[in-house]
Amino acid sequence: MPAPSDAMPTYDRMMWPALQALKKAGGSATNQEHLEEVAKLMGLTEEVLVVLHKEGPATEVGYRLSWARTYLKKAGALESSARAVWTITPVGLALSESDVAAIPGKVRRGEYGGGPDPEPDKELEAAAAWKDQLLKVLKAMRPDRFERLAQRILRESGFVRVEVTGRTGDGGIDGVGVLRLTLISFQVFFQCKKYDGIVGASVIRDFRGAMVGRTDKGLVITTGRFSRDAKNEAGRDGAPPVELIDGEQLCDLLKQLKMGVRTELVEHVTVVPDYFGDI
């Protein structure tokens, strides 16, 4: 069920909270960290947060926050790195709420240079296409193949002795691996969830219950998304932590590991007519 239209914040309403969220985060944050902090500051409900932009995988809130960041970046208030880490600039720190409210009009009038109409974050639009295609492929995989894919991901990420168990009645534990660091190692149980929708807190509780007395580290990988309650449960104080990898993060991980995703650099050629006039 879609969220009421008046509950979905417009991009301009998100601009001031976007700045405040970065201040609260110490001046910088990843896309996901930024989105989570903005959602808290604005009091956005789970009903609003799960609405997809078009067919997904990006959410509508994430898409609109991307627009908000684009306008703030145009105004010189934000900077972004190649790793999609957002940083507030001295200009951004000095802005008041009324200054921020005036930015969209100034951008449309071209007062910041570079043309009056900024495009939304290009990485979000580009990512939506290939991630949507990749998630469709992953969701069509047989469960046993998806478990073997998770096994390969863990091995490529530095785990050793990774086994797929997949025993019924084992609390959803699909496998186990050992993450070896320089001097110590951790046994990690993992679970694979081929989901179209949202993974709730009960899944995390059941998985953690199966871990008790066997290991202190857990990992849940899904093609879907985790609810806010699931994220809170995964990091609940006093309980063994459970790391979460949702569909978007899974796509990014496969791209990083070059598993089923190929990145091509396209050469852009520009003719400079003035060159020939100077010969």
Question: How would you characterize the overall build of this protein?
Answer:
The protein has 279 residues and is an alpha/beta fold. The chain has 2 domains: 5-126, Arc Repressor Mutant, subunit A; 141-257, Trna Endonuclease, Chain: A, domain 1, CATH 3.40.1350.10. It contains 12 helices and 10 strands. The protein has helices at 11-24, 31-42, 46-49, 60-74, 90-94, 97-108, 122-139, 143-156, 201-211, 228-234, 247-257, 273-277, and strands at residues 28-30, 78-80, 85-88, 159-164, 175-180, 185-193, 198-199, 217-222, 225-226, 242-245. The chain has a 5-stranded mixed beta sheet, with helices on both faces. A hairpin with a 4-residue loop joins β5 and β6 (185-193). α1 (11-24) crosses α2, α1 (11-24) crosses α4 (60-74) and α1 (11-24) crosses α6. The longest helix is centred in the middle third of the chain and has 18 residues, at 122-139. It is globular, with a radius of gyration of 22 Å. The relative contact order is 0.09. The mean pLDDT is 86.
Q: What's the SSE blueprint?
A:
Blueprint: H1 11-24, E1 28-30, H2 31-42, H3 46-49, H4 60-74, E2 78-80, E3 85-88, H5 90-94, H6 97-108, H7 122-139, H8 143-156, E4 159-164, E5 175-180, E6 185-193, E7 198-199, H9 201-211, E8 217-222, E9 225-226, H10 228-234, E10 242-245, H11 247-257, H12 273-277
Parallel strand pairs: 6-8, 7-9, 8-10
Antiparallel strand pairs: 1-3, 2-3, 4-5, 5-6
